[in-house]
Amino acid sequence: MLRKLQKKKKDSSFGIFDIAVLGTVGLLALFYLAIIVSMAFYTDLNTFLSTLFSEEILFAIELSLITATLATVASILVTVPAAYALSRIDFRGKDVVDTLLDIPVVMPPVALGTAMLIFFSTPPGTFIQDNLVRFVFQAPGIVLAQFAVISSLAVRQIRAAFEGVSPKYEKAARALGCSKLQAFLKVTLPMAKKGLLAAFILVWARAIGEFGATITLAGATRMKTETLPVAIFLSLATADVAKAITIVSILIIISAAVLIFIRKIGGKIAI
Predict the structure, then answer these.
(1) CB 82 within 8 A of CB 152
(2) Each residue of 80-135: pLDDT tens digit?
(3) d(CA 33, CA 190)
(4) CA-to-CA distance for 32 and 130, rounded, in angstroms?
(5) I need a surface site. Which of 41, 71, 185, 205 has the fewest CB within 10 A?
């Protein structure tokens, strides 16, 4: 008994290695904390609040929330069946499809936006612009740019959620008389709901922060295509540091809230 207690005490004590690795965690956390706290020295509360409730910032917040929600809903509707297919079905060319869907993850968003801008200069793109929806330098272009960026992330997140559900539960449901669709709706989706909710919130937050593809495809026009990240760009272009700090603070609060929520529900981030 005494040996067990001594061994337990020895295992729980901090050694040089533990102190070293914890030190790196502390330094990294302090690095990001210092960056965030430093913004407080460049503005005061009155300036912050007056900027926050200005017409331009409120417009940027509203536009960001609307476009990000539309892009996320559209993305989830497409990526849920796509992620399920990739998690459950083996088919010829699956590796190629996987690679194509992963390209936006490693591709710079501005490059993706440039590719979409070029597409709308082609005959099919011109037809869409002239007869269906105008995306280039218009608000719908924001939704399309966000959709293009977040869908790849959504597939990865949702696929991880489906892979966390054992196929044996679906087989049991099928044995009890359920069709594939019924097994998917009644068994797989409910069992993967935490992962799906985490994916929805995460990709929504990513859409809120999308900048590169958005500014390339939809442009940066004040009070027209001005999302929160675009507003930061425009503020820095005119040396309006107070406005930039206000918008950055909003994005930090959104990001922190999203990460806390995902951890609270027990969701996992697969990036």
Answers:
(1) no
(2) 999 999 998 888 888 899 899 988 888 899 999 999 999 999 999 999 999 999 99
(3) 38
(4) 46
(5) 41
